[in-house]
Amino acid sequence: MLVKPTVTTYNMLVTPTVTAYNILLSVIPATKSYFIAVSEEFVSCFKEKGILTSLMGPFVLGIGMTLSGACPGMVLAQVGAWSANSIFTLIGCLFGALTYGLIGPLVSKISRPKKCFENHQNGPDWGIGGR
Fold it and tell me: What's one Pfam family the UniProt record gives for this protein (predicted)?
């Protein structure tokens, strides 16, 4: 008997694959410097964001996912497949993007940290990507 693949099945297969790929990128000498540069670029985005901003975003995203019962990453596939209530998830995504565009700069300015985030990732003591 064949099991119909679902989004959960897809996520269960893709997540370990992507994780293994990232681990390989961080170990292979040819891509190690690129991986470290990308990691540092990712962490540097926290220099202008405070704890309030970093906590509020995932909190609002979680509330939206709970209310809609869907993941916004798959909303276009859900709308294309005519999943139940997927149009409301799409409208919520668009409304959230509009709201973020309008009040995001204000919230970032209000919550900007006085002391910038320090990058301790890939430090020389860890032997991962010594500088």
Answer: Sulf_transp
Dihedrals φ, ψ of 73, to 5°? -70, -25
CB of 92 within 8 A of CB of 120?
no
The total number of residues shown for the chain amounts to 131
> Do 60 and 87 fall within a single domain?
yes
93, 35: one domain: no
- How many other CB atoms are there within 10 angstroms of residue 5's CB atom? 9
Domain membership of residue 22 as a residue range = 1-47
- Structural domain includes residue 101: yes
Indicate if the alpha-carbon torsion angle 74, 76, 80, 83 is positive or negative: positive
Written as six digits, the tokens of 44 are: 């540097």
Task: For 52-76, write each residue's pLDDT tens digit.
Answer: 777 777 888 888 888 877 887 888 8
Site of tokens 């320090």 = 118
pLDDT of residue 131: 47
